[in-house]
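lol forgot to send this yesterday, sorry. struct tokens for the thing we talked abt
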């Protein structure tokens, strides 16, 4: 699966995240709203597709979290210290995570791809009329992103927000959060949701 997804990225001529280039010496540069910069090892990678995120996760011996796992991690980590840069911070590019223990950058810096397709929640009934038609056309061929980005207003940044894009989309500060299966506890396996993938 990872080889197929990586092959999809390579087959589309993707050599790196969107807005990245190699300079004449072969060193990577990333284009930001402040111009070209060298990527920083402490800043999350952004502008990657679902295919690239999934391939990287598998290469790293991990996987993308499901939407439910992401929301569970946010609910059990809600100590108020997991915010990254949002629109009002005027960073306009992902920033390094705050120091400390626990999950960081759940809301802000980069939207985070999940392994979940954008489908209705169980029990959802499509309303009649325009609203139902509008919602229905997006519930096909899209993947869920959670969190928020440095271009998201603070009023829109909340753990329950469901963003969605086609899996090949790379433009909206889309990034990676890794998850790994933990040691089984009783009948359920504990899930570990790790931090966002950094640039290097």
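and heres what i got for the seq, position by position
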């Amino acid at each position: 699966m990872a080889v197929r997804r990586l092959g999809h990225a390579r087959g589309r001529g993707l050599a790196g995240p969107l807005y990245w280039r190699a300079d004449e010496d072969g060193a990577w540069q990333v284009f930001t709203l402040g111009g070209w910069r060298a990527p920083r090892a402490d800043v999350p990678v952004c502008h990657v597709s679902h295919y690239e995120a999934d391939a990287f996760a598998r290469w790293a011996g991990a996987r993308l979290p499901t939407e439910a796992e992401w929301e569970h991690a946010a609910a059990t980590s809600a100590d108020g210290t997991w915010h990254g840069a949002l629109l009002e911070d005027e960073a306009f590019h992902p920033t390094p995570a705050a120091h400390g223990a626990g999950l960081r950058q759940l809301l802000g810096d980069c939207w985070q791809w999940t392994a979940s397709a954008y489908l209705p929640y169980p029990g959802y009934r499509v309303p009649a009329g325009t609203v139902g038609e509008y919602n229905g056309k997006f519930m096909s061929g899209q993947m869920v992103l959670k969190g928020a980005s440095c271009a998201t207003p603070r009023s829109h940044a909340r753990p329950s927000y469901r963003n969605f894009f086609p899996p090949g989309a790379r433009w909206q500060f889309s990034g990676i959060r890794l998850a790994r299966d933990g040691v089984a506890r009783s009948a359920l396996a504990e899930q570990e949701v790790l931090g966002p993938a950094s640039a290097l």
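Confidence is low (pLDDT under 50) at residues 1-8, 184-191. anyway ping me if u want another try
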